[in-house]
Amino acid sequence: MKQTRTLAHLQTRRHFFGRSAKGVGSIALAHLLRQDLPGTQAEKAGSVGLPGLPHFAPKAKRVIWLFQSGGPSQLETFDPKPGLAKLRGQDLPESVRKGQRLTTMTAHQTSFPLVESVFDFAQHGDGGAWISELLPQTAAIADDLCIVRSMHTDAINHDPAVTFLQTGAQIAGRPSFGAWLSYGLGSESSDLPAFVVMITQGTGGQPLYDRLWGSGFLPTQFQGVKFRSVGDPVLYLSDPAGVTRERRREFLDVLGDLNRKHYEDYGDPEIATRIAQYEMAFRMQRSVPELTDLSGEPQSVFDLYGEASRRPGTYAYNCLLARRLAERGVRFIQLYHRGWDQHGQLARDIQRQARATDQASAALVTDLKQRGLLDDTLVVWGGEFGRTVYCQGTLTETEYGRDHHPRCFTIWLAGGGLRPGQTFGATDEFSYNITESPVDIHDLHATMLHLLGVDHTKLTFKFQGRRFRLTDVHGNVVKQLLA
Predict the structure, then answer these.
(1) Is the peptide bond before 54 cis (omega within 30 degrees of 0)?
(2) Contact 365/326 with Cβ under 8 angstroms?
(3) Which one, 19, 143, 257, 432, has the greatest CB density within 10 A?
């Protein structure tokens, strides 16, 4: 008798949640499918975000993040230290290093010889930004950039540092920035994902894992969709041979009915995610081929981005595709470019990286500006940490390398409500410690969310009994960066 009452109780709870799914749950499902409840007009726009968001009028509607994986050296790009030439070969003073922990790659060294950059710097634009000769095209748009020299991070090795920058935590499992944005603000596009990821092909460097653009504990519909450079841009985009678009529509309708019935019974949000993703995939069968067809772009665009922009998988091609995605309302576009991890032969290898990325990065900002998109598009360029002022390994007349350095590094941002033409923050004469206006990862995330109209303390998700947010319990908006 007691077992019967327990079973009835469990069935009642299950059916309570199932019946709830027909009310509140059906509203959520309708939003996932971009369809309203019966009797109302269907929504034309993309998926909606959380009620009450944005919290205030946004300056930016979307983000393009040009992530330079490996840790570009600030000493060779945006933070010149000409006084180092006189100190070449001398040991880094302990009063500067202050017992900072080292990676296993330099911890065994008995000395830490200082080495200057072999590249020249000059001031550019009305703001007088110091930019290396490695980046002439970036230098040409200096007045559109907000250069932050005082970034710092907690992580000293690649994987935790990249994970921290992408998710706000060094330990894997948290939602990525793009997932938080998709969850909070939804999408402006009904035919493309809210969050798209592209990776430059043919470069070496540290591995990149799908969890870096994952949804963590958020529903999986908010994870990034990776576009490929070979075959279909998205896996399984093409129908099997002999399957017409009409048959595919019939198949999805029947499958959708079955999944909706299952969702009504159990209210599992992952079922709703699957329905929504099937529908998005169906629409992408039309939208993605049009997106990736560059035949309509004029020669002037390829001249701007460089001839490499014609070849799928190159950084230049991905930058051009990022502009096309921004035009079509994609909320968050993440480009990954590897190969900036120069522990040795830095002078040779960083030139290769600069040649591969400088023109296209500058072209993207220029292109967005010419089309009136830069004002409401936030562009971010940078890596997970910086490089040391001392040489890793043996310093020679012609060769040197630099180890990981989390205590200061440089990024730049453009558009989206930032104050352009400024260089923010400063480091000491060794580019080793920050001397003015430090900005940590949580501050960067808080500021980016602020530009998107989001109060970073209020965008939360309850998981395992507590409310999580991208900035955890940290982060301040850097108001000096705002226009």
Answers:
(1) yes
(2) no
(3) 432
